[in-house]
What does this fold into?
Amino acid sequence: MFITDDLMQRWWALEAKMLDRFGKKPDLEAVLFLIGLQETGFMAEKISKEQKQDLMHVAVCTVLAQSGYYLVEGKDEEGWPHFAQLKQLPEMSLPEQENFIKDHVLLYFEQSGF
It folds into this structure.
């Protein structure tokens, strides 16, 4: 329980920073979307649902690469990164998966100095 409490405190601190910066409190999906934008440099006036999913996929692979789950294989002609999965993700319940991703997102922002 202590680990979850610590995780939530750190997550709330990140939400507060993002609220200050963007004027809106983001959920996990919004944070992953922002990471995807950051990692790809993708900019468009209108973003399709498929592009949003692709950006979130890039984000998930990027944050999990920190723990050796994925490796960037390279970029395609449009500059989108492609990943290879190096090891299986552990089996977890949905709340555990969300906390697992949140912990990696927090590490990503910590390492980027945010």
About this structure: Strands lie at 70-75, 81-85. The chain is about 60% helix and 10% strand. The longest helix spans residues 2-22. Residues 43 and 105 are 21 Å apart (CA to CA).
